[in-house]
Amino acid sequence: MQIFLAFLIVTIVGFVSALAVGGGAAFWFAIAWFVGLVILSLVLGAYAKRQIDLAHSADPPTIQQVIESHFSGVGWKNVQGDGLMNFQSRGIGINSWNSKNPVVSVSLSPTVDGGTEVSIWMSEWMTRTGIVSSCDRVVSKRWTLLRKLAALEGESEVRL
Predict the structure, then answer these.
(1) Is the pLDDT of residue 92 over 50?
(2) CATH number of the domain that 129 lies in?
(3) Are the C-beta atoms of residues 151 and 144 closer than 8 Å to each other?
């Protein structure tokens, strides 16, 4: 959602600024905006499709509690799916008009040292013209989840 809102703000400010300069500037801004939107959508879609596997020192119940609290709220809902935990986004995102929102699945496996192996992937999605619907929501939610897991681990940054 953060990526979508940032792009929306850039769109509004850029278009109003281009209109203030003149019609030609607005035309070229619209072309650059469209090309930028397509490139951003393709890059975010490719990143959203990547599965992320990581090892964590915390036990599985602790990790599960962090993940469930992270996806609680109005933006995501619990659904049935391929993972131990499955969450479907709600609301608008890039290319989400009249599309089914994607499902993010999470699987947890205990390790021999008492830690947890975490797998996060997008298990269901819809594409239109090669662009994954609401890919921005998946990328931003997954990124903030990785930040929370890194903070729980005691690291200052997440390595993808």
Answers:
(1) yes
(2) 3.30.310.80
(3) no
